[in-house]
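[Meeting: bench + compute handoff]

Bench side (C.D.) handed over the final construct sequence. Compute side (W.E.) agreed to return the predicted structure before the next meeting so the bench team could plan truncations. Sequence as handed over:
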Amino acid sequence: MANLRSPRCHFFCAFLFLLLVQTQVLCSQTQYKVGDLDAWGIPTSANPQAYTKWSKYHAFKIGDSLLFLYPPSQDSVIQVTKQSYDSCNLKDPILYMNNGNSLFNITKPGEYFFTSGEPGHCEKKQKLYISVLSGNGSAAAYGPSALPETASSPSYPTVFGTIPQPPSSAPWLGFPLFITAVIASATWAIINGMM
């Protein structure tokens, strides 16, 4: 039996702890429903900055995804350039999504601009900006940094369809946990055999 007070055992425990922390960091991904309780739609007059406020209070990182829920017969989502976002130009979008359950996967750091694909909706503030920074994964909201704190936006009881699961585009995410278990077992066997 291994001596739990030995330096090798302490090293092993510290090594396992760091390996498990790394596994948690690699495997933590979040799917954000844009607007939280609200569906993707034109903000109310009581809360015209709904999407600016929403993005301000979320920290986006690589591997996260954005879920836009809306009635497909009435709306859509397009990813656009900063210039198109600022001018509400709906022509030549980078990405067009119109199925009512639109999932956008964040795959690299940078700025992302979205708006409704329906004419007139962007001018009514149905647009979203997020920033994904490399390293710490924090985000900033587009527009004024100090938004007035007002009542939260209303919630809508209707959910338009089921929430899709993110595609399994990264099957390696379960791999760190497997490697951690293999390394831990091998290291423990070596320590037990040497003592």
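W.E. noted at the follow-up: Strands lie at 31-33, 65-69, 77-80, 95-97, 101-105, 110-116, 127-132. C.D. will use this when planning the next construct.
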